[in-house]
Amino acid sequence: MSVSSTIPVELKHKLYEESVQNHEADLEFMEEQFERFRKRKPRTLREDFGGTAAMACDWVKIHPENKAWGIDLDPEPMKYGMENHYARLTDEQRTRMKYIEGNVLHNYDFKADIIAAFNFSYFIFKKRADLLEYFKKAYESLNEDGIFMVDIFGGTDCYEEQVEETEHDDHSYFWDCDKFNPLTSECLYYIHFKTHHDGKKYEKAFTYDWRHWTPMEIRELMEEAGFSKVYTYWEGEDEDGDGDGEFFLSDNEENCESWVIYIAGLK
Ligand SMILES: C[S@@+](CC[C@H](N)C(=O)[O-])C[C@H]1O[C@@H](n2cnc3c(N)ncnc32)[C@H](O)[C@@H]1O
Fold this sequence. Notes:
Elements: H1 9-20, H2 23-38, E1 44-48, H3 54-62, E2 67-72, H4 75-84, H5 91-94, E3 97-101, E4 112-117, H6 128-140, E5 142-154, E6 163-167, E7 171-180, E8 186-195, E9 201-211, H7 215-225, E10 229-237, E11 243-249, E12 259-266
Parallel strand pairs: 1-2, 1-4, 2-3, 4-5
Antiparallel strand pairs: 5-12, 6-7, 7-8, 8-9, 10-11, 10-12
Helix pairs in contact: 6-7
């Protein structure tokens, strides 16, 4: 492997989005579930830990009444998002999308139908009390029939100190579990990239110093935060045993090497 280079900011966010995000599927799933439980269409989406807020920008494109907010502490991904997603919206769509440089723990003067916290970003809260505080804030920030959606990952592989490589058209994505402390569930992950056209390796493009929460802990904490019902989903399998992208309600499944699922908290 070649010597690691410092990744340019634009490339870092571009490769990250191509590697880990799938907004169309996430948005379709959230809309479907909202309608299933609430018998109406959701119209407002708050994307917590939004980073580039690509999902929030997509949301306002779906319907002329949709509104979105993307909240993140870090101006760097937001700048990328404004230049690459917000800038591509029409003038009218831009009036319905707002970037907020701020903390998800703070109070905001609006409520949403859906709050989404994806790519496990809430793992940043390592203490139970801190995660509970966040879930309470999310609860308060939802409309009366609002739904809080998070994702979570696990499986027998996820605590192994190992690097998993995924090939994309023009780059490779590496998910590196560098450390897992079985006594505290604290874990340290890195994302590395390698671009194919020049063979450059970008080590530690992203670092995540997290606590690895489990679905049951999340369910209990959401209930404690006030959510009336909390549902876990599981992903179906195709004939090769790989995930088929179809998620269904379940609370009893056989473990596997690696899984990523949704959890919904209903206000
Ligand atoms: C793993 S990235 C997720 C980006 C995007 N949501 C996604 O799904 O790919 C986590 C983001 O959370 C942001 N963040 C961390 N703590 C935060 C907080 N307390 N309030 C708002 N944003 C926070 C970081 O700046 C970072 O951009």
